[in-house]
Amino acid sequence: MADAAPRFSLGRLRLAVQLIMLFVTVYGASLVGYYAADKITGSLPALSCAYDKQDGAYCILISTQHQLHHRVGEQIAQAGHFALSMIIPLAFTFLTFYLFFIVLNKAFCGWVCPLGTVQELLYRLGRRLKRPFRNLSETAARRLRPVKWGLLLLLVFALPVLAGLGVTPAITGDAFCQICPSRLATTLLTGDAEQLTIRQNNALAFAFGALANTLFGFVIIAALAVRQPFCRICPLMALNAAFQRLSPMRLVKSQHEKCEKCGICRQACPMDIPEIHHEHGRKAFSEDCTLCGRCAEFCPQDGVIQLKFGPLALFRSSRDYYKARFKRETPAGEARPVRWLSKPAAGESPDA
Amino acid sequence: MDKRVMLSIMLALAATAVQAARPQAADCRADEMNAFSTLPMLVPAGRGDRAGAAYCLANVRTEAVEVRNGAGGFAPPAALAVAAGGFKVNPGKVGNYHWLQAGEASQTGVITASTVHYFANPGPAPTAMLHLAKAELEIVPQPLPREHWHYRAGETWAFLVRFHDEPVKDTGVRLETSGGTQQVFRTDGEGIVRVTFPADVADEAPKGGHDHGRGGENRFVLAVGLTDQDGRYYLTGFNQVYGAAADAGRSLPYGLGFLALGGLAAVPLAIRRKESKHG
Predict the structure, then answer these.
(1) Of A63, A119, A162, B22, which is the most exposed, with the fewest CB atoms less than 10 Å away?
(2) In this structure, what DSSP letter does residue A236 have?
(3) What residues form DSSP beta bridges with B233?
(4) In sequence order, what are the residues at sequence separation of 6 or more whose Cβ sits closer than 8 angstroms to the Cβ of residue A300?
(5) What are the pLDDT tens digits along chain B (279 aa)?
(6) Band of the pLDDT at A240, cuts 50, 70, 90?
(7) pLDDT digit string (tens) for A211-228?
């Protein structure tokens, strides 16, 4: 990637990648083969749903829950003790996950995740429909962070193990999938409304279904005004955050005297991350960062914010790029109207 | 009480609960008496687990069952010895779709029973394994169910019927289910029979985990028989399970209701507040 070319925008490139990956994750079986979703990976660091019959790969949260349920919980219950061999398959799942993750880091959230893309498209629709722009205060953004870690520990790790041990009902063996909005979004995109239905013959299944649908309904309406509402509590964001320092791909911000007064980067950030405004160095690359690059696009200072892969700068902020970008879109994502000016007649002043 | 003692008691209780839930090793000879069909089948004795799955032979007699795990390409299948009318298949380290096949040859003909068992292992796609002719007369799923996409009542799935690797056209294929349905479908000009699973599955509460919210399920066997030019009779069966219909025990109105509830909760965020007028 290079500095600003007249028609180039990192945002446009990202949108193109997101749309391609939306197709791959939702309809990918038509590209990679019917059985390939079982084969490519069950460890994708993005919410790609196994309940979608046409998907191209599974998300790691599914494999993790299954393995904790069947390989760990049930095996402990049978053997009466814990053995290292019980977690070896889980270790391989995470190794596969890491082979993907090391290349893109949390760009899986910002560039690949189908639910992220759906939320962004809804936010764009909200701009078209003149919906208000609501961002989280710095305090709210920070207070919301523990929720995703709690969901990861409870729904992805604890309940599946407890289900395997027989402590909680077996339906909690894939507790996160039961409430995941991506399950509803991606299956609906294939024209399958089955996941929208709620089981009536089991109280817990009904409760999970009611919670899932309520959450999904909230997310799709909130996304018209709030950027990435579900990402803020997504347990996959937490899992990815746990590994984010182990990849050469990262966000880098250097200290600059004008940063504290400016703050456009935070306005541009779809996750309302305070650190991108106030911090620099490692602290600026927050656990909530999705490596979307908008902060770098809207930073008016040359080279202050960069997307880097090892020593290689993939994209760096620049004043010229910022000016061109700002003409087309505000940091909050409002498209600026294009003004078409008629060509002045010969000898006529343009201001006449 | 010491924490370790408490933990031991909890684990022991949990182990007892799991053992109680696990199907005991079946007496296959007794099971065969209770088979829902007289067609050849490989009937699962319980759901099986990561360590292996037990099967019983029904209406077919043989001393060994052939197993292909798809990982060996065109390598000869492994042979599993049959004992007391049944066998146990172990997953090994690779191969997820395992094709199990039992054949009984006599002077008058050949009887074959086949099924597929899925283990959550790494392995190649089963396309080549399905393409390979594995018996004289066979019924081949087109495609196989996936781990999260199973046969269900009301759904139509395709199966290829072939004899000596050639499609068997315009021939009756018999479907029998443990729900009591008996039905005949016909193959088309390309040997494909499209089977719609009957709505005879009792709706049960989902068990979760590997149940994937399916609830109850029935067994089925698809079978076809024909006689060759030499007068030898061939009978083959493919058996599997199918679940309740996608909408069984489910409510779309409730689903839409809670969807609307969530949407309504978010409406205050998405509406523009009137700006207050001062002065």
Answers:
(1) B22
(2) H
(3) B109, B227
(4) A262, A264, A317, A319, A322, A323
(5) 444 444 444 434 333 333 333 334 456 766 655 678 999 999 888 766 667 888 999 999 999 999 988 776 666 788 899 988 889 988 776 778 899 999 999 989 999 999 999 887 777 788 888 888 999 999 999 989 887 778 999 999 999 999 999 999 999 999 999 999 999 999 999 999 999 999 988 876 555 445 555 568 899 999 999 999 889 999 999 999 999 888 888 899 999 999 999 999 999 999 976 655 553
(6) very high
(7) 999 999 999 999 999 999
Helix or strand run (H / E) with residue A123: helix A114-128
Q: List Cβ neighbours of A12 (8 Å cut-off, separation of 6 or more).
A: none
SS3 category, A215: helix
Give B224's strand partners: B236
Distance (Å, rounded) from C-alpha A124 to C-alpha A348?
40
Partners of residue A76 in chain B, C-beta under 8 Å? 11, 14
Question: H/E element holding A309?
Answer: strand A305-309
Mean pLDDT on A170-182: 93
- At residue B21, the pLDDT reads 37
Mutate which of B250, B256, B274, B275 to test chain A, going by most A C-beta atoms within 10 A? B250
Classify domain B24-262 by CATH number. 2.60.40.10
Q: Give B191 to chain A, closest Cα distance, Å.
A: 21
List the one residue out of B155, B151, B177, B181 whose CA is nearest residue B243.
Answer: B151
Give the residue on A whose Cα is nearest the Cα of B125. A35
The DSSP call for residue A311 is T
Say if the Cβ atoms of B263 and A37 lie within 8 Å.
no
For residue B24, the 8-state DSSP code is: P
- Domain extents for chain B? 24-262
Which of A30, A34, A35, A88 would best serve as a mutation to test chain B binding (most B beta carbons within 10 A)?
A35
Distance (Å, rounded) from C-alpha A110 to C-alpha A17?
10
Beta bridge partner(s), residue B156? B196
Query: Is B270 within 8 Å of A171 when comparing Cβ atoms?
Result: no
Q: φ, ψ for residue A251 (rounded to 5)?
A: -100, 135
State both tokens at B35: 């088979």
Distance CA B223, CA B135 (A): 14
Distances (CA, A) of A188 to A203, A344, B26, B266: 24, 51, 42, 20
pLDDT at A343 over 80: no
Q: What span, in angstroms and rounded, lies between the C-alpha atoms of A37 and A25? A: 9
Q: Which residue does chain B place closest to A35, by CA atoms?
A: B125
